[in-house]
Amino acid sequence: MRIGELAARTGVSVRALRYYEEQDLLAAERSSSGQRRYPESAVERVVLIQQLYAAGLSSRTIAELLPCVVDGRATPALIERLAAEREQVDRRITDLLHARDRLDSVLTAATANLRTGAACRREAAPRAR
């Protein structure tokens, strides 16, 4: 498939797909006219790359981990690295859950204030002297 079709099927911009190629995250064959051609498996790979980016991994880390994640080929060092990345994702999830809980508390209080007619007031920050 051509780059535009891959972009449409994955919801990723053409520019991002070119960046993935530059970072050795994605490979394309070239037609005789120089157009990129991707195999069907590129759709799943792009989705995986997007998931890893969303988890906070860098391009370099994704490039190192893709062989383990995609093909199951791994060295002990790569498995250790993957486990460390997973721990970081777990920490971010925990932090996000705490932030969500805090927002829920604020929403509950704000909703109660609306019912009672009390307004939420923004407190001014103390001025520096």
Question: What would you say this structure looks like, in words?
Answer:
With 129 residues, the protein is mostly helical. The protein folds into two domains: 1-73, Multidrug-efflux Transporter Regulator, Chain: A, Domain 2 (Orthogonal Bundle), CATH 1.10.1660.10; 74-116. Helices cover 66% and strands 3% of the residues. Strands 1-2 form a two-stranded antiparallel ribbon. α3 crosses α4 (59-71).
Topology diagram in text:
Layout (H helix, E strand, L loop, with lengths): L2 H8 L3 H9 L6 E2 L5 E2 L3 H14 L4 H13 L4 H41 L13
Antiparallel strand pairs: 1-2
Helix pairs in contact: 3-4
Order of helices and strands: HHEEHHH
Number of domains: 2
DSSP helix fraction:
55-70%
**Beginning-to-end CA distance, first to last residue:** 64 Å
Strand order of the largest sheet: 1-2
Protein name: MerR family transcriptional regulator
InterPro entries: DNA-bd_dom_put_sf, MerR-type_HTH_dom, MerR_fam
Keywords: DNA-binding
Pfam families: MerR_1
